[in-house]
C-alpha cells in the first residue's frame, strides 16, 4: 500500500490534490463518516443547541490493546474491545490508513469487514475495520478483570487480520490493556437536518473530554451531506473551526503515559 496516498491530513483547507485523493478513496469505500469535534468551551452550548437529553445516552466502556509504547498504533493497527449498555460486547481490529482498491477481495468480502473514509475539517483517513460481536455481555468484562485472555475475545478472521499487519512475534496475548474509557453516545435525527446525527462524549482519565458529532452517508453523497451538515451546525452556532481531535489517539496516548509512569 502506498503510504503517501493515505496519510491523515491536518491542514485547515484541502488542496486540489487532497480533494482528488478524497474522491478516489471514497469511491472505493463502503461508507463515509463525517466528523467534527466541538471545542471544549462550547460543549454545553452545543448540547443545548442540539437539544440532547443526557438521559437518552447509551453508556459504553471502550478498551484498547497495544504495547505501553503504542507499537501497534505506530503501525496503523488498532485493537479494541467494547462493552455497550443493553447489547452484546463487540471487538474490532482496524488498519489505517488503507487504499480501498489495494485490499484483497477475499478480505473485502469477509463478514464484518467495513472500509470507511473518515473526514473532518481539514483532514481525512481511510480505514479497514473487521468487527465481531461476542456471544454475551460479560466477555470483555472478564478480560478487564484478568479472567480471560485477549486472544479469546477475537474471532479467527480477526486474529488472521491482526497477524497480517502486526509486528512479527507480537501476539494478541502480549498486548497491554489500555482502558477502559467511559463514553456516552446519543443518536438523534434533528428535524432541520433530517439525517441521523451521532453525538459521543468521551471522558478521559485526566479529566479532559472530547465531544464528537458525526453522520454517515454513502460515498456518492459525501459532498452534499457535508454541505448540509455544515449549514445545519453553523446555523446552530456550533464552531466548525476549532482544532480537531481524534478520540482513539487521545485515549491511547493518555493510557500509555499512565502505564509508563506506573512502571
Describe this structure in words.
This protein has helices at residues 3-6, 16-27, 43-49, 71-74, 105-108, 139-144, 156-165, 222-235, 247-262; strands at residues 31-38, 58-66, 77-84, 90-95, 113-120, 123-133, 176-188, 197-203, 209-217. The protein is globular, with a radius of gyration of 18 Å. 29% of the residues are buried. The protein is built from 9 helices and 9 strands. It has a single domain (3-262), classed as Beta Barrel (Hypothetical Protein Pfu-838710-001), CATH 2.40.320.
List the defining traits of the structure above.
263 residues; single chain; 9 strands; Hypothetical Protein Pfu-838710-001; globular; disordered N terminus
Quick take:
This protein has nine helices and nine strands. It is of the alpha+beta class and 263 residues long.
What CATH architecture label applies?
A: Beta Barrel
- What overall geometry do the principal axes of the alpha carbons give? globular
Mean pLDDT: 92
Query: Runs with pLDDT <50, length 5+?
Result: 1-12
Order of helix and strand elements from N to C terminus: HHEHEHEEHEEHHEEEHH
Strand and helix layout:
Elements: H1 3-6, H2 16-27, E1 31-38, H3 43-49, E2 58-66, H4 71-74, E3 77-84, E4 90-95, H5 105-108, E5 113-120, E6 123-133, H6 139-144, H7 156-165, E7 176-188, E8 197-203, E9 209-217, H8 222-235, H9 247-262
